[in-house]
What does this fold into?
Amino acid sequence: MARIRLFRTIDEMQSSSLQWKREGLRVGFVPTMGALHEGHLSLVDMVRPHCDRLVVSVFVNPTQFGPQEDFNRYPRDIDEDLRLLEEGQADAVFAPEIEEIYPKDYATYVEVERLSSVYEGAVRPGHFRGVCTIVAKLFNIVQPDVAAFGQKDAQQVAVLRRMTRDLHFPIQFLVGPTVRESDGLAMSSRNAYLTNEQRSKATVLFRALKAAEACILAGERNADKVREAMRYVFAEVPEFKPDYGDMVSPESFEQGTEMRGEVLLIVAGRIGPVRLIDNLPVSVEP
Ligand code: AMP
It folds into this structure.
């Protein structure tokens, strides 16, 4: 097996990708912020059959963090990430320095209107502007034919799908299911911040989602009652400070009142200083 290649500069990454494409090879891409876990690796596994060369980016993107957020202490371990990706059979890792991506005179940003200003966008102003900007830049650098994202960040998926469509990136979009710990907690690099006690409380997000899902599957068609089912579970864990627990349309993130077709249950909040999000898609039978 060829060893994984590590690219640090835009030029190296872009010229390799362009060369692969000239050779008729299909390029697959998984953007990440590193501190890789099974959730990230599941995306690598998902995209591999769809491409001939697989690139993973590892870049903790400063423009998607708010001034009070955890940019400085976000976990970073590139050696371990490289080891995992080599095992996972990625071909290349793109891990640039910040100055390579955002030089001093940097001035261009990408913004998807509306969708970016609700839920995660309302709690984290500017977050999706940062996400769209870095993903658009990475698309131009890596030149992928196919890219994979996690359902774990459902609103990010909706925003990036819209950006991909609106800016005419000729890129196939794959979405992988949320990978969870055995007790239901969605895997996240941020889970490493949790103390043991906070870790055991953190299942509240998944339990709230499952309670709301059970309510729908039992035939409840009143959206307010479904939201109430989430709030009951939140109330069992006073350490959890919810930002929202809601039912929305998976594409528009508009608040759902009609219970038909695909709906998306979404939750977010803090336990101590750690902010966690989760979601569950549910098909509503007529
Ligand atoms: P991040 O490194 O947190 O920016 O995540 C990089 C990609 O991995 C994004 O598309 C995430 O949605 C995805 N991801 C993160 N956690 C999970 C998970 N538990 N299951 C599936 N995908 C995930």
Observations:
- The chain has a mean pLDDT of 96.
